[in-house]
Write a structure and sequence with these properties.
It is a single chain. This protein is mainly α. The chain is built from 9 helices and no strands. Helix 1 crosses helix 5 and helix 6 packs across helix 7. The two termini are 29 Å apart.
């Protein structure tokens, strides 16, 4: 039973990790935020420079071989460097989880010749998304009630210091990454989680129907 619960949690965290990383790399979301919130006017930087800085951030936080983050036309404090490094550790961990997950699935496919492997995999995914659903319902509910508070709670859970509270004078990048942008990204993540959950549920129900038939 413990192994089954552990596997379900692993599947849930893995799917969430892959979706979060996919959204992170969807630069068009940030492009929308630039236009929606007039970030070029607010920061005094062109849309091209803003996008360049955003790409520098996502390249840095997900690539373990990039040792230093440097912005285009923006200074950064030592506290800012520390915070981005802490963010980097989180995203690299998500990549490790995603890679292990994909490796496990490929290994099962290659080594298991059973005809019901597809059904068992879907059953495992179904158990995983049950846990995943609880997570995104909880996160979605508290974020819908007060995203600002949820945003603060998130940082207090994942970071053991206040370095994430940027001073716009020493770390003007904070003006280019408003809270509203992260709210949009969270909404997209939750929508994708709902879509994945429904897709797996439909496959699971179909498989059960076929088995009974």
């Amino acid at each position: 039973m413990f192994f089954g619960i552990s596997r379900d949690i692993f599947y849930a965290i893995s799917i969430i990790s892959i979706i979060v990383l996919s959204v992170l790399n969807t630069t068009s979301v940030y492009g929308y935020a630039i236009q929606r919130y007039k970030l070029n006017e607010y920061t005094g930087l062109s849309a091209e420079v803003l996008m360049d800085n955003y790409k520098r951030v996502i390249d840095y936080v997900q690539n373990p071989f990039i040792k230093e983050l440097k912005f285009n036309n923006l200074p950064m404090s030592e506290f800012g460097r520390i915070h981005f490094f802490e963010v980097k550790r989180i995203f690299v961990t998500l990549y490790v989880i995603g890679i292990i997950f994909i490796g496990v699935i490929i290994f099962k496919i290659l080594t298991n010749k059973s005809t019901d492997l597809r059904k068992r995999l879907i059953a495992n995914f179904n158990s995983g998304v049950n846990i995943m659903a609880l997570i995104f319902i909880f996160v979605g509910a508290i974020s819908a009630k007060d995203f600002s508070k949820a945003f603060i709670y998130f940082h207090k859970i994942f970071f053991r210091n206040n370095y994430w509270i940027f001073d716009p004078i020493t770390d003007p990048i904070i003006n280019a990454l408003p809270e509203e942008f992260f709210m949009i990204e969270l909404m997209i993540i939750i929508i994708l989680l709902v879509v994945v959950t429904l897709a797996i549920k439909i496959l699971y129900i179909r498989n059960k129907s076929v088995s009974k038939g």
